[in-house]
Amino acid sequence: MGTTHFPQAVAALERTMRYVEDFPEPGVLFQDLTPALADARAFHEIVAALAQAAGELGAELIGGLDARGFLLGSAVAYELGLGVVAIRKKGKLPPPVVSEEYSLEYGTSCLEIPAEGLDIAGRRVVLIDDVLATGGTLAAAASLLRRVGARVAGHAVVLEVPGLGGRERLGESPLVIIHP
């Protein structure tokens, strides 16, 4: 699917996004979505674009990734009248949990969902997050959901950090990026 054109969301992002040079390390231009999320009009346009993408991907359930994916995923689910699965960082949920460890540039991390109380087997889940960088977190979330029987219908993100291999790490799953 790739990048889709969402002119209102792109304009809202360009109007509100903050750029920070050399963060988190020298040579990196950090694209801060915090001002966009705090601006009611921009937030609405971003959520509308993500909801359109999730709808086109055939979402039956939204998966929001810790932490900004929670904000966006919850709003998208609400907009579409769907439920949302909060995919948490390790140690935030009481046991029993289903876990998925994955590699980061600087070590490993882990995502979890409850092992009980979720009826997601066979359901089409669209994963929502703010930024696609290396793709490790989204790939781990997709693997975690597949292990419990869900069908990952695709991924929708607001921004992509190019050149880090994120798209490749997601394999053949459809990907929608709001801001090219």
UniProtKB/TrEMBL annotation:
Primary location group: cytoplasm
Subcellular location: Cytoplasm
Pathway: Purine metabolism; AMP biosynthesis via salvage pathway; AMP from adenine: step 1/1
GO-annotated molecular function: adenine phosphoribosyltransferase activity
E.C. numbers: 2.4.2.7
UniProt keyword list: Cytoplasm, Glycosyltransferase, Purine salvage, Transferase
Keyword Transmembrane: no
Lineage: superkingdom: Bacteria
Coiled coil: none
Record's catalysed reaction(s): AMP + diphosphate = 5-phospho-alpha-D-ribose 1-diphosphate + adenine
Keyword Protein biosynthesis found: no
Residues covered by the Phosphoribosyltransferase domain: 61-162
Pfam families per the UniProt record, alphabetical: Pribosyltran
Top-level class of the enzyme under EC nomenclature: transferase
Entry function: Catalyzes a salvage reaction resulting in the formation of AMP, that is energically less costly than de novo synthesis.
Family per record: Belongs to the purine/pyrimidine phosphoribosyltransferase family.
Quaternary context: Homodimer.
Stated name of the protein: Adenine phosphoribosyltransferase
